[in-house]
C-alpha cells in the first residue's frame, strides 16, 4: 500500500511538472507572437547597422513567420544577387510554422552599397553575418543558416568560425572547393554542350568580350536552361528574374570573375574540403542531378561532415527549390523538424 501511495504522489508531481512546462511554453509563445502596440509595425523588416572598416552601413532583413525554436537565415548566391529569388520559400515554410529571415548582404538589393571593391571580401562578409545574428538575437537554440551557391561558401566559412552560435547548417547547391567546381565545369558540363556552342563561348571568353550580346544568347539555352534553372528562360519565375536584374556586377566579377562558365576572381582557389570534419553541428547538404555543382562531390561533403546528411534532388538544377520543389522542400523541412 505504501508503494502505491508513493507511486501516486510521484505520478502527480510529474504530471504537475509537465503541465507547468506546457504552460510556460505556451506563455513563451504568446509573448513571442505578441504585437508591440507602442511601435509601428513594418512587416518584420529591420535595417541592421554593420560596422566594417570603421564605417557604419545598414543591411536589410525581413522576418517571415514566428517560431522561437526554428529561425533560418537565408544567404543568397551570386555573389551579388538579392534575397528575392528565395520568395518561393513563402509557399512552403510558413505552413510548417518554420520562421525564416530574408537578408540582403552588403552591396545587394535593399542594403547599402559602398561601391568599393575592397568591401567585397569573404572574411568581411563572415563578420557581417555575425553582426546580423547578434542584432536579431539568434542563438544556438534556434539559429540555422541556409546558404545557396555563393551563400553556401559564406555559410561554410561562417560555420567554421561561429558554429558554437548555431543549431544547424544547410549548404544548398555549393561545393566546398572552387577548384573542383571549375574542374567539373570544364570536364563534365562543357562536354555536355553542343560542340559548336562551346566553341563560340570559349572564343568569346578568350577574347574577354563578355559584353558581347551573343555570349548570353549562347549561354541561356546551352547552360542556364540546362544547369541553373531547367525551364525555358521565358518561363522563369518572376522573383528569379527580378533578383537577377538587380545583380551587383562589381561584386559578382570581383568574387566570381567575369566568366559565367567556371570561376575565377577572389574565390578561384577557395577550398574548405579538408576542414569539413571540423563542422560538428547538424548539417544538410543539398545537391541536384543537373546542378552546376557536382552532386557526387556534394554527397562526399555530407559524408565528411560528422553530422552531415545529403539531400539529392533528382529532377533539379542549381535552383532546385524551383525546378524540383517537392523533393527540395520535403527534405529541408524534415531536416529542420528533426
UniProtKB/TrEMBL annotation:
Zinc-finger found in the keyword field: no
Any one GO biological process: proteolysis
Keyword Transmembrane: no
Alphabetical UniProt keywords: Hydrolase
Active-site residues, record numbering mapped to chain: 149, 291, 318
One of the record's GO molecular function terms: peptidase activity
PROSITE patterns cross-referenced by the UniProt entry: PROKAR_LIPOPROTEIN (PS51257)
Top-rank lineage group of the source organism: Bacteria
InterPro entries referenced in this protein's UniProt entry, alphabetically: AB_hydrolase_1 (IPR000073), AB_hydrolase_fold (IPR029058), AB_hydrolase_sf (IPR050266), Peptidase_S33 (IPR002410), Pro_imino_pep (IPR005945)
AB hydrolase-1 domain mapped to chain residues: 72-324
Family recorded in the similarity comment: Belongs to the peptidase S33 family.
Name recorded for this polypeptide: Proline iminopeptidase-family hydrolase
Origin species: Flavobacterium profundi
Amino acid at each position: 500500500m505504501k508503494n502505491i501511495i508513493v507511486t501516486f504522489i510521484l505520478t502527480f508531481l510529474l504530471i504537475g511538472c509537465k503541465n507547468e512546462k506546457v504552460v510556460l511554453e505556451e506563455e513563451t509563445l504568446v509573448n513571442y507572437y505578441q504585437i508591440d502596440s507602442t511601435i509601428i509595425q513594418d512587416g518584420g523588416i529591420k535595417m541592421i547597422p554593420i560596422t566594417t572598416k570603421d564605417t557604419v552601413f545598414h543591411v536589410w532583413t525581413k522576418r517571415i513567420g514566428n517560431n522561437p525554436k526554428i529561425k533560418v537565415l537565408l544567404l543568397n548566391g551570386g555573389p551579388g544577387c538579392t534575397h528575392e529569388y528565395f520568395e518561393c520559400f513563402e509557399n512552403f515554410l510558413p505552413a510548417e510554422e518554420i520562421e525564416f529571415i530574408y537578408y540582403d548582404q552588403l552591396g545587394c538589393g535593399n542594403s547599402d552599397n559602398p561601391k568599393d571593391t575592397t568591401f567585397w571580401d569573404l572574411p568581411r562578409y563572415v563578420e557581417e553575418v555575425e553582426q546580423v545574428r547578434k542584432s536579431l538575437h539568434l542563438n544556438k537554440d534556434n539559429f540555422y543558416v541556409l546558404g545557396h551557391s555563393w551563400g553556401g561558401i559564406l555559410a561554410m566559412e561562417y560555420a567554421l568560425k561561429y558554429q558554437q552560435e548555431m543549431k544547424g547548417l544547410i549548404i544548398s547547391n555549393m561545393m566546398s572547393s572552387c577548384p573542383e567546381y571549375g574542374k567539373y565545369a570544364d570536364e563534365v558540363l562543357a562536354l555536355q554542350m553542343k560542340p559548336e556552342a562551346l566553341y563560340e563561348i570559349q572564343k568569346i571568353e578568350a577574347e574577354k568580350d563578355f559584353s558581347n550580346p551573343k555570349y548570353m544568347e549562347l549561354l541561356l539555352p546551352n547552360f542556364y536552361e540546362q544547369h541553373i534553372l531547367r525551364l525555358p528562360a521565358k518561363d522563369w519565375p518572376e522573383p528569379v528574374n527580378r533578383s537577377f536584374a538587380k545583380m551587383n556586377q562589381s561584386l559578382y566579377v570581383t568574387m566570381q570573375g567575369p566568366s559565367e562558365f567556371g570561376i575565377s576572381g577572389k574565390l578561384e582557389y577557395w577550398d574548405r574540403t579538408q576542414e569539413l570534419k571540423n563542422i560538428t553541428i547538424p548539417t544538410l547538404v543539398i545537391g541536384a542531378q543537373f546542378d552546376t555543382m557536382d552532386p557526387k562531390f556534394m554527397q562526399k561533403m555530407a559524408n565528411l561532415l560528422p553530422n552531415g546528411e545529403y539531400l539529392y534532388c533528382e529532377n533539379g538544377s542549381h535552383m532546385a527549390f524551383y525546378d524540383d520543389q517537392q523533393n527540395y522542400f520535403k527534405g529541408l523541412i524534415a531536416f529542420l523538424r528533426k
